[in-house]
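Hi U.,

Before I forget, here's the chain from the pilot set. I'm dumping it here mostly so it's searchable later in email.
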Amino acid sequence: MARWQPDAPGRLATAALDLFEERGYENTTVIDIAERAGLTKSTFFRHFPDKREVLFGGGTVAGLLVEGIAAAPPAAGPLDTVAHALDALGRTFFTVDRREFSSRRQAVLKAHTELREREALKRIDLTASMIDALNRRGVPSLTARVAAELGTLIWEIAYDQWIDTRNSEDFGQLARQALAEVRAAGGVC
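Structure:
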């Protein structure tokens, strides 16, 4: 690939995923990833701090969730506000063209402890971002925390279903189904 082609972060993520599948995470270097993407090591580090981060979107998901929470209707309750953000995330990030990549990515994460740990930290960051965004909407701290924690659970349930390449449902639809299931489970508990 020529160096001038657009979407360097996407090309680096695809190259990294391919190499992690072919060689394993431990046997792949930043230089390997950059070369496979047709870029330089310097370009890699302009977009990602390390090879772990190349599979985690650099905060894109958290930013989209925060924007979705801010854009929710003013009268929406805290959990419906989070659901609104998950709908927006499905329309803008978890699109049909990303499903196969996301499914492959998840398989690589499951195979490597270091990447699973990074995923857990990202989940904590996502939850904290949602709490902050809900607080800015005037949601009390404890309520914001509960809504964000449930939102993270809903996101995980929907994501696990969405990455199944045999599934044809949209992420937003799966998130709404997961929300209904979490609400029903809450009533039973």
